Amino acid sequence: MAPYQFIERPTPFNTKGGSTLPIFAVTPAHIETGTIDPIALDWAKKAGYKAESGSLLLIPTAAGHLGGALFGLGANPSEQPYITGKLARSLPAGDWHVETAPLTANRLSLGFGLGSYRFDRYRSDKQAAATLMIPRDADGADIKRQLAGVFLARDLINTPTNDMGPEQLEAAFRGLAEHYKAEMSVIIGDDLLKENFPLVHTVGRASADAPRLLELRWGKKGHRKVTLVGKGVCFDTGGLDIKPASSMLLMKKDMGGAANVMGLALMIMDAKLKVELRVIIPVVENAISANAFRPGDIYKSRKGLTVQIDNTDAEGRLILADALAYADEESPDLLIDMATLTGAARVALGPDLPPFFTDDENLAHDLTEASLETDDPLWRLPLYMGYDKDIRAKIADITNAPAGGMGGAITAALFLKRFVSNAKSWAHFDIYGWAPTERAHSPGGGEAQAIRALYHHIRHG
């Protein structure tokens, strides 16, 4: 069974064997020492080709037809492990194979696949693309699985809110669950109050598209309990503390945590990992209406803690609070939450390096190793309890928006920590979910972050 696709698209890989054109992936040293195909070397020298990182030189046949391509890796290929992603966007349409390359087969193929991503759902000028034959010594099934997870996250984030509101996100979640025969349940609207999810209801009640809590269960009881929680704010106006236009422009991506845990869940289920998987996604639109929640309001959470609303634009932690408390009630072995939560995380580490928080030293070590192994960047920030005093409120247990704003990523993580007490291990990921610029393995736009590293950890942990 092929992995789930939210948007069906052609595979970036071919299986045409000897009828494909060759690619010679080379470094400047290969050109200087002449250790490549003699015809390709002769053409490279005549063209003055230097094999700079990401450069492409097409090679003609004696009859003047397209005969192959040279692809530059630069002097240090290890610095850009997924550089072959550029090939997917620069090669002419057609079927190709890599003839020689100083790269591992898995890394080479995954890089090409990641770089092949296009979000052309709304374009009428769809263009044919190059395809690559996966080398025989690569794990083709796992490469396709990881691509499917990454593409699902990218597709969900890139889809504008008029087509990715709470109702449509539920439909995508249902499609994923049905594809892998998982159990799914949904709690919608005022039923959230009956089932004790008051903060999810509070944040989402002003939208015409009702708030909801999505849940998926998959796997065999008795296996390691892995629970994923993702922030699903389909659009964030900021609420009554409304954002300026420049800050609202990208708010369709505020469901990036949900998109990423769905991509990770896809990988886990497709690989049939021996885990008891549970996925919980609180879904809302933070809109403005007469019944919108207000600054100064105080609400009781599912866990019983009261929360003072000091900024309606700090809504993500509110819906996560109820979802994490719910997840924690079953004492999972591993509890992961992912959220596009704070601008402070981006100020600290930029858009490409998501921080994670945990007080489990072994988990932190393993996640760091997984990050290095998969070249899926992560950086641990501290759950510094010295800042815990900042989330205390004057007339409620805690505030959703500490005064001053300093250390905002840490205080947000400490807020969430209040709602996790039974899980054996917990980690919070504050992701951006967006690539502001094109990179070798990404054309820019919606992005999967940390889920390849997490998949590697769960698979081998």
TrEMBL record:
- Which CDD domains does this UniProt record tie to the protein? Peptidase_M17 (cd00433)
Q: Name one GO cellular component term.
A: cytoplasm
Domain Cytosol aminopeptidase intervals = 311-318
According to its UniProt record, this protein's enzyme class is hydrolase
* Any one Gene Ontology BP term: proteolysis
Return the PANTHER family for the record: LEUCINE AMINOPEPTIDASE-RELATED, PEPTIDASE B
The UniProt similarity line reads: Belongs to the peptidase M17 family.
- Name used for this protein in its record: Leucyl aminopeptidase protein
